[in-house]
Amino acid sequence: MKRAMMTMAVVLAAGVAQADPAMVAETAKGQTLVDAAGMTLYTFDKDSDGNSACNGGCAANWPPLMAEDGAMAEGAWSVITRDDGAKQWAYDGKPLYTWVKDTKPGDVTGDGFNGVWHVAQP
């Protein structure tokens, strides 16, 4: 009985593997990272590895891809701490954001905005 319970616990733990916080989708810009709703993710040239420079009004227009408490970084994915203490996903060290003017999955209207915003590509 004890052995059966241990086997069941191992099987259950294996089924709880964490999925990547974003997916890859084909857009007009080629293969692009998108969030769970299919909205394009962007990077910001003013960010430095592991730090977001987009706060306040910037974050209202470029909502960060937030990480839930306990999110586990793996591979190219990392979790950074924002100025307000909230957690945000980063890919290859670059924090990720959506753009409020993208209205449907596949939109890439933020690419090249002010010369500092770019679609995130795997």
TrEMBL record:
Keyword terms of this UniProt record: Signal
InterPro entries: Lipoprotein_repeat (IPR005297), UCP029720 (IPR014558)
Name of one Pfam family that matches: Lipoprotein_15
Protein name: Lipoprotein with Yx(FWY)xxD motif
Signal peptide: 1-19
